[in-house]
Amino acid sequence: MATTETERLHGAELGWFSNFLYTWFHWFTKALVGVYFRAWVINPENLPDEGAVIISPVHRSNLDVPLLGITCKRRARYFAKDSLFRTRIGRWIVITLGGFPVKRDATDRAALLAAQAVLERGEVLAMFPEGERKEGTEVHELLRGVAYVAGKAQAPILPVGIGGSQRGMPKGVYFPRPRKITYIYGELIQPPVLSGKRVPKSEINRVTEELHAAIQALFDEAQAAVGADHDRPVLASE
User: Fold this and answer.
1) b vs e for 19-57, b when ≥16 Cβ sit within 10 Å of the residue's Cβ?
2) Is-contact 126 68, C-beta < 8 A?
3) What are the angstrom distances between the C-alpha of 68 and each of 33, 41, 192, 211?
């Protein structure tokens, strides 16, 4: 049975037409990205070929989300800020590409339930644990939502470092520049250990700390791989 737009907004399985458009878009843009950005994934084998997994990258550029989807060997579902769903065309595009809305200024229970539904079907879910696009070379404090969702679904977390995306499209720039961008997949982090059906706060904190350390190490490695200068901020004029 075909799913409705409302169901897809809440993480329901995508239909054949959405899958067709995504497949076409994925391969077409992958060819362009390979030439324009020289985008590269290191350790792609760390992403399992099947089963639920949460991809958890650092976030420094508006390029991070589309390039993550294009370079990933599996289709990923992801949170998208609710403002992208205000227009009919914007809502259609984001849903077709696998997004569902989240309110960033509050705990969005509906979004968390949608994420859990995606993982229960054995799909890939992308969650940016810093919550929104940040600046600088230090990974900011992580939100606990990634570890919580991983615990509820008992899905492993794949930490990802991204190097070069901030130079490809820093804040204040509206068209991406041809810069080398590297994604580095880390080792899988196992989900929090449940206590009955609960995800203990101590386990959420433990996994969040482990994830923070892993992302920072991968971010440093990815920045070094593209020759990024850690000593100064990226300017829109560069």
Assistant:
1) eeebeebeeebeeebeeebebbbbeeebbeeeebbbbbb
2) yes
3) 11, 10, 25, 18
Give backbone dihedrals phi and psi of 102, rounded to 5 degrees, phi first.
Answer: -140, 140
pLDDT confidence of 171, banded at 50, 70, 90? confident
**What domain range includes position 173?**
37-72+123-225
Please write the tens of the pLDDT for every residue from 58-85.
Answer: 999 988 888 888 888 888 888 777 777 7
Report DSSP state, residue 160: E
CATH of the domain at 204: 3.40.1130.10
User: 105 lies in a domain?
Assistant: no
* Per-residue DSSP letter, 120: H
Q: How far apart are CA 7 and CA 51, in angstroms?
A: 22
With respect to residue 167, please indicate whether it lies within any of the assigned structural domains: yes
Q: How many domains does the chain have?
A: 1
- Using alpha carbons, list the distances in angstroms from residue 58 to 81, 188, 198, 211: 17, 15, 28, 11
Reading phi first (left if > 0) and then psi (alpha if -120 to 50, else beta), residue 122 is in left
Q: Cβ distance 150 to 127 under 8 Å?
A: no
Place of tokens 């037409």: 17
Q: Is 9 inside a domain boundary?
A: no
